[in-house]
Write a structure and sequence with these properties.
- It is a single chain.
- By secondary structure, the protein is an alpha/beta fold.
- It has three domains: 269 residues, Alpha-Beta Complex (Spore Coat Polysaccharide Biosynthesis Protein SpsA, Chain A); 67 residues, no CATH class; 105 residues, Jelly Rolls, CATH 2.60.120.
- The strands form seven sheets. It has a six-stranded antiparallel beta sheet with strand order 20-21-22-29-24-27. The chain has a five-stranded mixed beta barrel with strand order 6-9-7-8-12.
- Helix 2 links the parallel strand 2 and strand 3.
- Helix 1 crosses helix 2 and helix 6 packs across helix 7.
- The protein starts with a strand and ends in a 6-residue tail after the last strand.
- The mean pLDDT is 92.
Length: 475
């Protein structure tokens, strides 16, 4: 029987180049751009074939753990493990921890595929041919990367020069090339034999850990100690913070791939993008006859070669060329598509001012282990939220020192505890929770519970929650 691959999905990045939809606490891998799935969910689907893959291991952080769990649950895709990084230490430490965990769960002969959760990939036959070629090369002891056939002299990617072909169908790596200036990129494309470095890898676990012992022992020691001292938290494995923080901050490319003699590359012709800018979103999407991508709730007139997307208000765009117009619930970005790589500078400017810093950090919708909430309106001494609770879940038994709450059910059935009283609320029914009263909300039904919450009081911060009983260990 052909060996299955253990997918290791890296989902901890906090990129802001796709602002305003992407924020520090809700980055691009968890955002729905075009289509009905997020980039993370599309990644899960690509590794869901049980004939080819084991259940995935996801590496993420504290802030995103419930996003990971909820988006996997929506697709009914089981996860083998969710590793929580206590601090960011780049990809080498994350891969070392995941490889050690995989060795324990799946055996020392396991093969892992390390893949980012924020890439846009067309998973066609060319893609899976490349995956099988990489698996065969890894089974023979090679540390394999994927080289993407360049479509332009891009300066935002590193390059790989390929050498002679191996019996597995992969090639030797001649050298890795840093992100080039445009003239250098044009020269490499004209010469041929150069591919974009995709950041996707296939590793035999035993050889990877052996090479890490030789070339990055400090990374391996920190990661394995952090795993050995890890704690369980619900369905999550929380790496030990003190040990993990001792790892050098280094990528798997620098730590291992550029040093090892076992590196191989699979030249790959499948459609790929790292979705690093609005320009990349436009290039990978399905454009109309005028070169536009216009998502739902938009009206576009006399406009060409533009990207128009909204997660909030209706957008009407007229007489424009080469622009990105992107609206979230609380902010709008307008700029030339050709300058979309510069959005990061704009985000830094916003983050540096007290009045706008929140726009770069938190999204109006926040996720919790029981569901989540969307901030609808904030006023003086009041705010309005939409709360959604997953079937079978319940919030903590809690109280507030500074606010009272009104709940109006708009969908589903709510089980509401106020003091010693438990009552059932259905659509169009409401209840009042006085300041200081112990209360709890639960969804006993089979469908999503949605309600509108109106908070009133002198202080409305999320930290005004005194949890008395909580099934998620947050008391």
């Amino acid at each position: 029987m052909t060996q299955k691959i253990v997918p290791v999905i890296m989902a901890g990045g906090k990129g802001t180049r796709l602002w305003p939809l992407s924020r520090a606490t809700a980055p691009k891998q968890f955002i729905q751009f075009v289509g009905d799935k997020t980039l993370f969910q599309e990644t899960l689907v690509r590794v869901s074939d049980p004939a080819l893959y084991e259940a995935p291991v996801v590496v993420t952080n504290e802030d995103f753990r419930f996003l990971v769990a909820e988006q996997a649950r929506e697709l009914d895709i089981p996860l083998a493990a969710v590793l929580l990084e206590p601090v960011a230490r780049n990809t080498a430490a994350a891969v070392a921890a995941a490889a050690s965990l995989t060795s324990e769960h799946f055996g020392k002969e396991a093969i892992i595929q390390m893949l980012a959760s924020d890439h846009e990939i067309l998973a066609d036959e060319a893609y899976f041919d490349a995956i099988r070629t990489a698996r065969d090369a890894a089974a023979k002891g090679k540390l394999v990367t994927f080289g993407i056939t360049p479509t332009e002299p891009a300066t935002g990617y590193g390059y790989i020069e390929v050498g002679k072909q191996l019996p597995s169908g992969a090639h030797e790596v001649k050298r890795f090339v840093e992100k080039p200036v445009r003239e250098k990129a044009e020269e490499m494309l004209a010469r041929g034999g150069f591919y974009w470095n995709s950041g996707i890898f296939m590793f035999p676990v035993a050889e990877l850990l052996s090479e890490m012992q030789d070339y990055a022992p400090d990374v391996l020691t920190a990661a394995t100690k952090a795993l050995s001292r890890a704690t369980r938290d619900l369905d999550f494995t929380r790496l030990d913070a003190e040990e993990f923080a001792k790892s050098p901050d280094i990528s798997i490319d620098y730590a291992i791939m550029e040093k090892t003699s076992k590196a191989a590359v699979v030249p790959s012709a499948f459609k790929w993008s790292d979705m690093g800018s609005w320009d990349a979103v436009w290039k990978t999407g399905l454009q109309d006859e005028n070169g536009n991508i216009a998502a739902a709730n938009t009206t576009v007139v006399n406009t060409r070669n533009s990207l128009v997307m909204t997660h909030g208000v209706h957008l009407a765009v007229q007489g424009m060329d080469d622009v990105a117009v992107i609206a979230s619930e609380d902010a709008v970005y307008v700029g030339p598509l050709r300058e979309s790589q510069e959005v990061g500078k704009l985000v830094k400017l916003l983050a540096g001012h007290k009045k706008t810093s929140k726009l770069t950090e938190t999204h109006p919708t926040s996720y919790r282990p029981w569901g989540g909430y969307t901030s609808i309106f904030n006023g003086d001494r009041f705010q309005v939220k939409r709360i959604f609770v997953t079937p079978g879940k319940k919030l903590s038994l809690q109280k507030h020192h500074h606010r009272s709450e009104h709940w109006i059910v708009v969908k589903g059935t709510a089980e509401v505890t106020i003091g010693d009283n438990v009552q059932m609320l259905r659509e169009n029914e409401s209840v009042y929770i006085p300041l200081g009263e112990v209360h709890r909300l639960a969804n006993p039904g089979k469908i999503l519970l949605e309600l509108i919450e109106v908070q009133t009081g002198s202080y409305l911060g999320e930290d005004d929650i005194i949890r008395i009983v909580d099934e998620f260990g947050r008391t």
